[in-house]
Amino acid sequence: MAIDPADQLYIVDTTGRIQVFDTGGQPLRVWSTPETENGRPTGLSFDGRRNELLVADTHYYRVLVYSPDGEPKLHRQIGGTPGVGPGEFAFVTDAARDDAGHTYVGEYGDSDRIQKFSPDGKFICQWGGTGGRPGEFVRPQSLLVDGEDLWIADACNHRIQRFDLTSDVPQLVDHWGSEGGELGELYYPYGLEIDASGNLLVCEYGNQRVQKFTPKGAPLATWGSPGHQPGQLYQPWSIALDSRGWLHVLDSNNHRIQCTNALV
């Protein structure tokens, strides 16, 4: 799920459709990704400066780029070739852009790493690798650029890592989190958002909740619990914060969106 500056929600589902909704839940438009036989996309982000939707086309080893109306920008696509070399991908999880137009792409499988590309799609650098040491990843599921920081939900390490983007090769600033279900612990963090106060909101696929942290990782609050009733979640995948301060939660296996302002 992603949100644009007009507060329109973009949601990709297991049919390969990308549907766009207003904040009241009314459908606006829909289109489909070009291929779905091998699998469906798992990550979306919206570049508001360039008015482009980035689609992590996971099982086709690429990042697709669309206009808000669903027109493909084929010349902006990144990747498409499986492999571990520069510019090649394993299973793409997410993509995010910084203010200068650089694209950061996460992947898992043969390579648990992040690759950085220039605004015109040329490979610049890579970092990471499979493991649990600082700077390594096991399924970097979600990427979020906030100013000069790149936040990464290191899902299967049950932690958050943050990198400084001011150098040519991003540098690790800090990392925090450990596996568990208590306040301050994480279990498969998938989605990330930053609120107006700079606090980090984390969607936990495994704990079926959203948790709020300070930028240094101190826990502040949680919202949600396992279940099917309003306010309960079943394997939530992503979150998106709109301009009014409402947090939209992609309650994936309940096949719905829930909205709350309890954490913001």
Care to describe what's here?
This protein has a four-stranded antiparallel β-sheet with strand order 1-2-3-4, with no helix packed on it. Strands 5-6-7-8 form a four-stranded antiparallel β-sheet, with no helix packed on it. A four-stranded antiparallel β-sheet has the order 9-10-11-12, with no helix packed on it. Helices cover 0% and strands 45% of the residues. It has two domains: 175 residues, 6 Propeller (Neuraminidase), CATH 2.120.10.30; 88 residues, Thrombin, subunit H (Beta Barrel), CATH 2.40.10.500. The radius of gyration is 17 Å and the shape is globular. The chain is mostly beta strands and 264 residues long.
List the helices and strands and how they pair.
Elements: E1 2-3, E2 9-12, E3 17-21, E4 27-32, E5 43-47, E6 52-57, E7 62-66, E8 78-79, E9 91-97, E10 103-108, E11 113-117, E12 123-128, E13 140-146, E14 149-154, E15 159-164, E16 171-176, E17 189-194, E18 200-204, E19 209-213, E20 219-223, E21 238-241, E22 247-251, E23 256-260
Antiparallel strand pairs: 1-2, 2-3, 3-4, 5-6, 6-7, 7-8, 9-10, 10-11, 11-12, 13-14, 14-15, 15-16, 17-18, 18-19, 19-20, 21-22, 22-23
Sum up the structure in keywords:
4-stranded antiparallel sheet; single chain; Neuraminidase; 2 domains; mainly beta; 264 residues; Thrombin, subunit H; globular
* Mean pLDDT across every amino acid position: 97
Helix content: under 10%
User: In what range is the share of β-strand residues?
Assistant: over 45%
Query: What's the number of structural domains?
Result: 2
Under CATH, the topology of the largest domain is which?
Neuraminidase
The total strand number stands at: 23
Shape: globular
Placed side by side, the strands forming the largest sheet appear as 1-2-3-4
Major sheet characteristics: 4 strands, antiparallel
Query: CATH H level of the largest domain: which superfamily?
Result: TolB, C-terminal domain
Q: Gyration radius, to the nearest Å?
A: 17 Å
Give the CATH class of the largest domain: Mainly Beta
Stretches where pLDDT falls below 50 for ≥5 residues?
none
Cα(first) to Cα(last) distance is: 19 Å
List the secondary-structure elements in sequence, H or E: EEEEEEEEEEEEEEEEEEEEEEE
CATH architecture of the largest domain: 6 Propeller
Number of helices: 0
Structural class computed from helices and strand pairing: mainly beta
